[in-house]
TrEMBL record:
Belongs to the IlvD/Edd family. This is Dihydroxy-acid dehydratase family protein. Keywords: Iron, Iron-sulfur, Lyase, Metal-binding. Residues 363-571 form the Dihydroxy-acid/6-phosphogluconate dehydratase C-terminal domain. The keyword tRNA-binding does not apply. It comes from Pelagibacterium flavum. Residues 40-353 form the Dihydroxy-acid/6-phosphogluconate dehydratase N-terminal domain. NCBIfam families: PRK06131.1 (NF004784), PRK13017.1 (NF009560). InterPro entries: Dihydro-acid_dehy_C, DiOHA_6PGluconate_deHydtase_CS, ILV_EDD_C, ILV_EDD_N, IlvD/EDD_N, Sugar_Degrad_Dehydratases. The keyword Disulfide bond does not apply.
Length: 593
């Protein structure tokens, strides 16, 4: 059996002084020498819940069941805090903090006496941050979702996290509801502990953590308040102790096949446009070759099976009752769309885990024969505006399709006039200004919203049309930008444009009034302006020192801006990806005294 790394702290016969120093302080709250020197694995519980992180706060309760599971299996639990990441509360973005929490976790997992770790995941960026950190350090690790909130209801209708805001803001813009009803309507979508109950980034990333094999099967979809959630917390705690004895590490689980399975599942669930950013980041930290192009190649042809808002009608409780991720995987498996031999945290393959898991409600999880949409994955676009950007085609509404994609000679392409906004403040200020002459064939551009420009990349690309168009029944316009879009938004936007304007991307050169052509068939997005004019604008921009971004407000903003990669490549810290599997490759850190 492999020697546990925690022994180097607590039972090092070559260095009794240091052993004593390490032991005495951990014993000061009542842990005994017998326990610490028993040879039992020390298991970290990376706690992402706190009062600042309400989506994950229920992990503070679930951690008790995790501890009991760890103890049951013969391990010792050490719970520790993770830098909070709250998607809706953190300014300027929670995206800024994903890499910071990642760095913090790497230091903790590497520098403390931990043999394995339970990663408590939930709110959008907590899942990738935890999986990225575990990938870099590569000690045995298993993820535990906190689970979605119960379904929201308002006047007999389901109200889903985030999605209700996009709808309510249109109703308010159209004068159908006032401020009080707006707040009441939005608050109805958050009725319990847990994360967003729509197929937003949280449900997406928790589902994909399961598809990647990093959670116990069936773990992702259980609503936070259910008894099954606490039960799987206990099982997760038990399982990590065995994983330590088996030396089953992230690098043993996270193969390229697992990532391709995650891409397929993402299409079938109607996953968030943030998924490629985070999944590509995890792949880079574990050293698996995965590119933004893989999302179209391996994901576009997969149909949408899961009928959850924003693309469909149901919410998290319904997804769980219908069978959750294993039922989706099984359905894809029947068509040969899953690598069945991909390993998972419970020691079995994904095929063994999910085969024969039935769909229990065929309206919530559609059988392959009756999908909500065919070809539900992302399209990857490129051209003179950017090297890559993605579009979620599963949310293209019939209205949108009729307006833009119905020319019989050119059915998958559209052209229009650009109206360009420099950041969300500019958009809020001017969107209803009639002098912009926005009509139903205008394309709205948002720039200055990428990982450098808006540090962390803001979810601001999904813009509503001006209220005078909404009143005429135009509910969405094509939106293009170098920022992200909330996973709870149903807009068919072109997002995550890389490189961003602030990194010298083509979006920095576009001007209001330019014509732009988008062709979904060839996967191109081009500014219809002569090469000479583009060169002239480029020279003018360079002379000004590039596309401007606001001053750094914190040290971390400056540090991250200096080394962050673009969204298409996972927005990782570039120097960090050179550190691979450090628990193996770098050995143990030195003693501290
Ligand atoms: Fe935290 Fe959606 S805001 S899960
Ligand atoms: Mg969000």
């Amino acid at each position: 059996m492999k020697k546990l790394r925690s022994r180097a702290w607590f039972d090092n016969p070559d260095n009794p002084d240091m052993t004593a120093l390490y032991l005495e302080r951990y014993m000061n709250y009542g842990i005994t020498r017998e326990e610490l020197q028993s040879g039992k694995p020390i298991i970290g519980i990376a706690q992402t819940g706190s009062d600042l992180s309400p989506c994950n706060r229920h992990h503070m309760v679930l951690a008790q069941r995790v501890r009991e599971g760890i103890r049951e299996a013969g391990g010792i639990a050490f719970e520790f805090p993770v830098h909070p990441i709250q998607e809706t509360g953190k300014r300027p973005t929670a995206g800024l903090d994903r890499n910071l929490a990642y760095l913090g976790l790497v230091e903790v997992l590497y520098g403390y006496p931990l043999d394995g770790v339970v990663l408590t995941i939930g709110c959008d960026k907590t899942t990738p941050a935890m999986l990225m950190g575990a990938a870099t350090v590569d000690i045995p690790a298993i993820a535990l979702s906190v689970g979605p909130m119960l379904n929201g209801w308002f006047k007999g209708q389901r109200t889903g996290s985030g999605t209700i805001i996009w709808k309510a803001r249109e109703m308010m813009a159209a004068g159908e509801i006032g401020y009080e009803e707006f707040i009441e309507l939005v608050a109805s979508s958050a009725p319990s502990v847990g994360y967003c109950n729509t197929m937003g980034t949280a449900t997406t990333m928790n589902s994909l953590a399961e598809a990647l094999g990093m959670q116990l099967p069936g773990s992702a979809a259980i609503p936070a308040p259910h008894k099954d959630r606490a039960a799987i917390a206990w099982r997760t705690g038990k399982r990590i102790v065995d994983m330590v004895h088996e030396d089953l590490k992230p690098s043993d689980i996270l193969t390229r096949e697992n990532f391709l399975n995650a891409i397929a599942v993402n299409s079938a669930i109607g996953g968030s446009t943030n998924a490629p950013v985070h999944i590509n980041a995890i792949a880079r930290h574990i050293g698996v070759d995965l590119s933004i192009r893989d999302w179209q190649t391996h994901g576009h042809h997969i149909p949408l099976l899961v009928n959850l808002q924003p693309a469909g009608e149901y919410l998290g409780e319904d997804f769980h009752r219908a069978g959750g991720v294993p039922a989706v995987v099984n359905e894809l498996m029947k068509k040969g769309l899953i690598y069945e031999n991909a390993p998972t945290a419970n020691g079995q393959t994904i095929g063994e885990n999910c085969r024969a898991t039935p769909i229990l409600d065929p309206d919530v999880i559609r059988p392959f024969e009756t999908p909500l949409t065919e070809d539900a994955g992302f399209i990857v676009l490129s051209g003179n505006l950017f090297d890559n950007a993605i579009m979620k085609t599963s949310v293209i509404s019939p209205e949108f399709r009729d307006r833009y994609l119905s020319n019989p000679d050119d059915p998958e392409a559209f052209e229009g006039k650009a109206v360009v906004f420099d950041g969300p403040e500019d958009y809020h200020h001017r969107i209803d200004d009639p002098s912009l002459q926005i009509d139903e064939f205008t394309l709205l551009f948002m720039r200055g919203a990428g990982p450098i420009g808006y540090p962390g990349a803001a979810e601001v690309v999904n813009m509503r049309p001006p209220s005078y168009l909404i009143k005429r029944g135009i509910h969405s316009l094509p939106c293009i930008g170098d920022g992200r879009q909330s996973g709870t938004s149903g807009s068919p936007s072109i997002l995550n444009a890389s490189p961003e304007a602030a990194a010298g991307g083509g979006l920095a050169l576009i001007e209001t009034g330019d014509r732009v052509r988008i062709d979904l068939n060839t996967g191109t997005a081009n500014l219809l302006v002569s090469d000479e004019e583009i060169a002239r604008r480029r020279a003018e921009l360079d002379a000004k020192g590039g596309y401007p971004f606001p001053d750094h407000q914190t040290p971390w903003q400056e540090i991250q801006r200096s080394m962050v990669d673009q969204l298409g490549d996972g927005a990782v810290l570039k120097p960090a990806v050179t550190y691979q599997r450090i628990a193996q490759s770098k050995g143990l850190p030195r003693d501290n005294h």
